Amino acid sequence: MGKVITLFKLLPKLHQMLLCGLVFVTLIIILMPSDDAQASKQTPSASGEYDVNTRYEVPLAFRSPTPPSASLSESSPSQRTHREPLSQNREPSKQALTQATDKPEIQAAAAPKLKEKHFQVKSGDTLAALFERAGLTAKDVYDVTQLPKAKKNLLKIMPGDDLVIAKTEDGKLAKLTYHLDKITTLIVTHTDSGYHEQIVTKKVEARTKFASATIQNNFWNAGVNAGLTPNQIMQLATIFGWDIDFALDLRKGDQFAMIFEEEYADGEFLKNGNILAAEFTNQGDRYTAVRYKDGNYYSEEGRSMRKAFLRSPVDFKYVSSSFNPRRLHPVTGQVKAHRGVDYVAAVGTPIKAAGNGRVIKSSYNKYNGNYVFIKHNDTYTTKYLHLTKRKVKTGQSVKQGQIIGTLGSTGRVTGPHLHYEFIVNGVHRNPRTIKLPKSEPIAKKEKAQFATLSKTMMAELEHNKQVQLAAQ
Ligand SMILES: [Zn+2]
Hints:
The protein has 472 residues and is α+β, with helices and mostly antiparallel strands. Helix content is 25%, strand content 27%. The protein has helices spanning 2-10, 13-31, 35-46, 92-99, 104-109, 127-133, 138-144, 148-154, 219-225, 230-239, 447-471; strands at residues 115-120, 162-167, 173-179, 184-191, 194-201, 204-214, 255-265, 268-282, 285-291, 297-298, 341-343, 350-352, 357-365, 369-375, 380-387, 389-390, 397-398, 403-406, 418-424, 427-429. Mean pLDDT is 80; it is low at 33-111, 321-326 and 333-337. Residues 329, 338, 340, 342, 419 line the site of zinc ion.
């Protein structure tokens, strides 16, 4: 600090004054409250979106119950979200400053002495009824609905909608504001020259966010603690669903990190956008995914994330014990003593075809219960046993991810579970560990462009991880 003062004294008088002025202005800017932060805090929850900072009670069907022995808290500091906006858009305040000049027309129309009042549309309300409540006349209804956009939108107002009405001092309609959705607003103004209407659209801006977590005993909770919505957690699991069996293969210490988009309208949070890049480390194996402009995900080397087979025919969110590698087989009481993998989940849980193929058998017997066999090609066949219901018929073609039945306890079982077999050239293999053919690489002509994007995104991901580590 001493050095700074000495340096300051060395400066010419004019420079000293300028510097003082600059410091003063900077202080004012820093001390001014930021509406931006307020707006984004309020909107998501008020509009039914999930607030990213809140831990929600997950509906039972979506929650993997924690085994009674594991009472580990998921909120260890290591997995708190690090949600610092990325460098490309760190200046929301700049946008806020330019906003005011966006709509000069409207600012002028709304004379400062007008008092705006909110009127909520009630069940059975018409525009006429609402106008009457607002102290306006049938003539006002007629005049306003002569405007085409007003007519189109105001004649189909719905219960719960909000109309903002401003009247002049002598009780005449001066301005009507009606939000058509989160970004578009209809504004009707009355001036000496008559009624005017206008649709104002807020500018939607995408910001990127970073989130990461280390999983303690449950992927779902780790995701929630990282500030992700249920939808985002499922998206993440879908992106890596060809590589990782989220139902059975996750372990304590697994990690994920991701960059995703958020949409803002005039600084107000609208909704989450796409996941742009993600990394998942499962039992020491690292998987990466980058979203390309074609809407598909590719590994950082440019191989499609989509593969011929899903790792798991059951969504992880239904499977009861994610973290119990020594779970006993529900029939034999032994650890994996048979030729398949068992997924224990509630009766009725949807079962998906692991890959495209043809149903070679959809039938019932007293051992398998209801069962479905799918032949994918000359090499691969998958089998699904003990279903409550079969949803496909013998001979039918199925697509990867298609629901072929629901989990049950039919046949010789002691409890509900899916018995899943993966057969390669007639030999039973472990679907969770078998090496499958490499997926398609990105098209040759997209390769260079993807490589640049991938490099940038993975560097950004790495940078954010480092920043987070440093902050701990
Ligand atoms: Zn089994």
